[in-house]
Amino acid sequence: MNQVTKSLVVITGASSGIGAAMAKSFSAAGHPLLLLARRVEAMQALELPNSLSISVDVTDAAAIKTAITQAEAQFGPVGCLINNAGIMLLGQIDVQDPNEWSRMLNINVMGVLNGIHAVLADMKARKTGTIINISSVAGRKTFPNHAAYCATKFAVHALTENIREEVAMDDVRLITIAPGAVETELLSHTTSDDIKAGYHDWKEEMGGVIAPENVAAAALFAWQQPQNVCVREIVLAPTRQQP
Questions:
Q1: Stretch 100-109: mean pLDDT
Q2: Which of 114, 118, 120, 51 is nearest to 86 (CA)?
Q3: Average pLDDT, stretch 174-187?
Q4: Sign of the torsion formed by the C-alpha atoms of 52, 56, 60 and 66
Q5: Strand pairing class (78-83; 130-134)
Q6: pTM of structure
Q7: How far apart are CA 64 and CA 111, in angstroms?
């Protein structure tokens, strides 16, 4: 391992898409990393220096805490947690399998709360720290076939702002990043072929969507502000995305 001087950054959902782009971006900025996702081989394949990759399901609060304890023993306390893990299962509420709602609520909401719970008390005690929650434009407005997904992302927006207010005087920052359409594996989780086809047509009508690297750059920008500056929310989307 190289000499580590910057603070530890923890990223959930780091095996692909936005999470993998975050890992590369923060690693290039010199940070040691704890990468968390179910697919450990994909994280290890990134071959980033000063990084620890652990297979964790974000719905398992104890597993998150154990992984963070292991990383902190190697790299020091968590300076930044990026709650990125999430799934998008689109469908009409009257026909969608309710198990899909449970999966989204458990990963998109409970997973975020589990991550926050694992680091927040220590950040408050140290009077420093940053938590970045990856939400969505679907956490600010509604879309067809998105009702349950929107419910989870509206929750992320609300809990992030609520906790930000609670810990502001402890000099801990909470930041919401709300991307629009991004080129990731997220749509592949949806089981309806018709909905997936419509989504692909929408992307083509816009002339393409933004890259995960664009979201990672936004997160790094917010993180690199002085600790007394909190960029509360960043919304970014393709220029041609109207809603």
A1: 98
A2: 114
A3: 87
A4: negative
A5: parallel
A6: 0.94
A7: 9
